[in-house]
TrEMBL record:
GO MF annotations in UniProt: ATP binding; long-chain fatty acid-CoA ligase activity
Origin species: Streptomyces tateyamensis
Presence of keyword Nucleotide-binding: yes
Protein name as catalogued: Long-chain fatty acid--CoA ligase
UniProt keyword annotations, A-Z: ATP-binding, Ligase, Nucleotide-binding
Length: 623
């Protein structure tokens, strides 16, 4: 039986802040209770939709899902899975992922995800570290990686395949397992029981297995659901729903999955983050809210401008962006009681551009989306305001694998673009003397596999730098280990400048350099589609570019370099001369996960990029 207590949480004193609100804390029960509870409370409620081979969506009721979970869990029991055993899963986001997750918990097991893009070497390390009793691969590609990894690890385990009907076979094998066995295993679980091992993305060093409990997820799900209640409400009298496409190996996707099952919010699954592949699923599913990383919001915005440019309407799009930003800034301030509503002229212009531009932006997200949650890295504040003006409120938050997802989030009606919001109920934030962000709360993990505690006196040192304002809103200013210190002694946090430069339509990825150098430089890769559209309408005689300001390792039109220099000048307007980007260099290729330059959650692997482009870095500092 899943039971919560309501706890009154008082604001902590300086230097920490915590939510001034009651919060829910689980006292007994586990994640395995959720499907059973839902089936008992509302058996006919549609809680998931399963994509069929013809592209349509088949509804799955609460009772139907609970029955599938039980049947699969019995199969795991029949296959020899014991309480506490670990099950390795390497798969893209799909229905069977969620099914296996809850089935593993129902069998008393611990599911250990592996990113579907992982190499055999990465999977081998996880197998050696966690010692699974079973491995599950999505398809032939994943099976090949896991087969190699299992052989190298010398830890033989049975390998099942989802594309070979693994869940159906498990259900058949478990037909003779009595219900009482599952009831017994569920009864043994508590909020303190280990639910999963999620391995960090490994931006630096070898990934570490974070020990997350059932209570971590239940605490986070209940309190995020309460805080973000408008996100989870019906749209046009239709029940709320979301399409999951983030990798469920990532803690944010996993936490949203749990929150939706907790709240009986309909879930669909899509296997790709690529906008072109995702759009058909968004259109057919009709989600009311989305959870994504900034890359998706940036890409939709960039593609919108590219399409407008192709119709020779780039000027209209740019004016619509300006109106949306100004309108949203005024409306958000008014909601927070910090100013009047947008003036009539601005509201009129906003209504005009809604028909021309904003409706198409919403259509690119499926048509019904009115809310979105962004995590993984920071979102440009002007981009957040643009989407708000276009009718999609994006709530930016901050958290880590070690905190089971968001520890802070911008709440509805009290958003502050540029911040990641105040702590969620039950969480607390403290700023260390050196500026490092420290986190605490019920969603804080129980240390790393192998015994490393991870937290000191209940506070986890994140490695991120930040500041708190007077109302407890957190702003992330950089990474402690990524601070560039120029030869002149100036400390520069690269992430905010990278975010601003990457927001330009022509820029795909960028990385700032300058540690021990006389000034800051930038390596950038280009969005080829955006470049083609730009050149189709670029001036015949672009302004001359000082070769010391911009260069390229590949052939690039002068107009593109001139545009990049202008973009850099705009970015530099927000910082001092000592912190500004002095030179920019276009490099070959792109920073991609396939090349080992991005993590599966699309974070830069800085050292890998620096090594891959070391000659380009040196070129930035040639006189």
């Amino acid at each position: 039986m899943l039971t919560y207590r309501l706890v009154s949480l008082l604001a902590s004193t300086y230097p920490g802040r915590s939510s001034k609100a009651d919060w829910l804390s689980p006292t007994q029960g586990s994640l395995a209770d959720l499907p059973v509870r839902n089936a008992a409370a509302d058996p006919t409620a549609v809680v998931l939709s399963r994509r069929t081979p013809d592209g349509s969506w088949r509804p799955v009721t609460a009772a139907g899902f609970a029955a599938e979970v039980a049947a699969t869990a019995k199969g795991l029991v029949s296959a020899g899975i014991r309480p506490g055993d670990r099950i390795l899963l390497m798969s893209r986001t799909r229905y069977e992922w969620t099914l296996l997750d809850f089935a593993a918990w129902t069998a008393g097991a611990v599911l250990v995800p592996v990113y579907p893009s992982s190499s055999a070497e990465q999977a081998e390390w996880i197998i050696r570290d966690c010692g699974p009793a079973m491995a599950v691969a999505e398809d032939a590609t994943a099976a090949e990686v896991l087969t190699i990894a299992i052989a190298r690890s010398r830890h033989p385990v049975p390998l099942w395949r989802l594309d070979h009907e693994a869940t159906a076979e498990l259900a058949n094998r478990g037909a003779t397992v009595p219900d009482a066995e599952l009831d017994s295993r569920r009864a043994e679980l508590s909020p303190d029981s280990l639910a999963t091992l999620i391995y960090t993305s490994g931006t630096t060093g070898r990934p570490k297995g974070c020990r997350l409990t059932h209570g971590n997820f239940l605490d986070e799900a209940a309190n995020c659901h309460a805080l973000l209640q408008p996100v989870f409400e019906a749209v046009s009298d239709e029940p709320p729903s979301t399409l999951l496409f983030l990798p469920l190996a990532h803690v944010l996707g996993r936490m949203i999955q749990v929150t939706c099952v907790y709240a009986r919010i309909r879930i669909g699954h899509s296997p790709s983050l690529a906008p072109d592949e995702l759009r058909p699923d968004l259109a057919s599913f009709g989600a009311s809210f989305l959870v994504a990383v900034p890359y998706l919001f940036e890409k939709i915005h960039h593609l919108g401008r590219v399409e407008a440019q192709g119709r020779k309407a780039a000027g209209v799009y740019d004016r619509a962006v300006d109106v949306a930003v100004r309108y949203a800034r005024a409306e958000l301030a008014a909601q927070a009681g910090q100013g009047p509503r947008a003036p009539l002229a601005l509201r009129t212009a906003h209504a005009f551009y809604d028909a021309l531009v904003y409706r198409k932006v919403r259509q690119a997200m499926g048509g019904r989306v009115r809310h979105a949650i962004s995590g993984g890295s920071s979102l440009n504040p002007d981009l957040l305001l643009f989407y708000a003006g276009a009718g999609v409120q994006i709530y930016e938050g901050y958290g880590l694998t070690e905190t089971t997802g968001p520890s802070t989030v911008n709440p509805p009606l009290r958003q502050r673009p540029g911040t990641v919001g105040p702590p969620v109920p039950g969480s607390a934030v403290r700023i260390a003397p050196d500026g490092e962000v420290l986190l605490s709360g019920g969603q804080l993990f129980r240390g790393y596999l192998g015994g490393e505690p991870g937290a000191t006196d209940g506070w986890f040192a994140t490695g991120d730098l930040g500041r708190l304002d007077g109302d407890g809103y957190l702003t992330i200013t950089g990474r402690k280990k990524e601070i560039l210190v120029t030869s002149g002694g100036k400390n520069v946090s690269p992430a905010p400048l990278e975010d601003r430069l990457r927001a330009h339509p022509l820029v795909s990825q960028c990385l700032l350099v300058g540690n021990g150098r006389p000034y800051v430089g930038a390596l950038v890769t280009l969005d080829r589609e955006a470049v083609a559209q730009f050149l189709a309408h670029a001036p015949a005689d672009p302004p001359a570019v000082d070769p010391r300001a911009a260069g390229s390792a590949v052939p690039v039109e002068p107009a593109v370099l001139a545009e990049l220099v202008a973009a850099v000048e705009q970015v530099n307007a927000s910082v001092s001369r000592a912190e500004s980007i002095r030179r920019v260099r276009v490099v070959a290729g792109d920073f991609t996960e396939d090349r080992g330059l991005l993590t599966p959650s699309l974070k830069l692997r800085r050292q890998a990029v620096l090594q891959a482009y070391r000659k380009d870095v040196e070129a930035l500092y040639r006189s």
